[in-house]
């Protein structure tokens, strides 16, 4: 047990870009996102590219962007980080 690294995608810190913390968590439903984060501004955006743009362009230094989902949402961290970096130049 001592060598068990723990579960991936449970409030996993991805990185900080332009003062915005990006976190990933495995969950299934927007209501669970509200319960996990305690934040009422949880949005369901079906299009992955639009979700990346919205998350990055809405975020301000000190904010936390949490990606949640049972699918492949974790693959989009790079796009969110890229938009964050471009939007602040």
What this model shows, in words?
It is a single chain. With 89 residues, the protein is α+β, with helices and mostly antiparallel strands. Helix 2 packs across helix 3. A hairpin with a 2-residue loop joins strand 1 (12-17) and strand 2 (20-25). The protein has one domain (12-87): Mur ligase, C-terminal domain (Protein-Tyrosine Phosphatase, Chain A, Alpha-Beta Complex), CATH 3.90.190.20. The chain is globular and about 40 Å long. 17% of the residues are buried. The protein has helices at residues 30-37, 48-58, 77-87, and strands spanning 12-17, 20-25, 64-68. It has a 3-stranded mixed sheet, sandwiched between helices.
Topology:
Blueprint lengths: L11 E6 L2 E6 L4 H8 L10 H11 L5 E5 L8 H11 L2
Helix pairs in contact: 2-3
What are the salient characteristics of this protein?
single chain, alpha+beta, Protein-Tyrosine Phosphatase, Chain A, 3-stranded mixed β-sheet, 3 helices
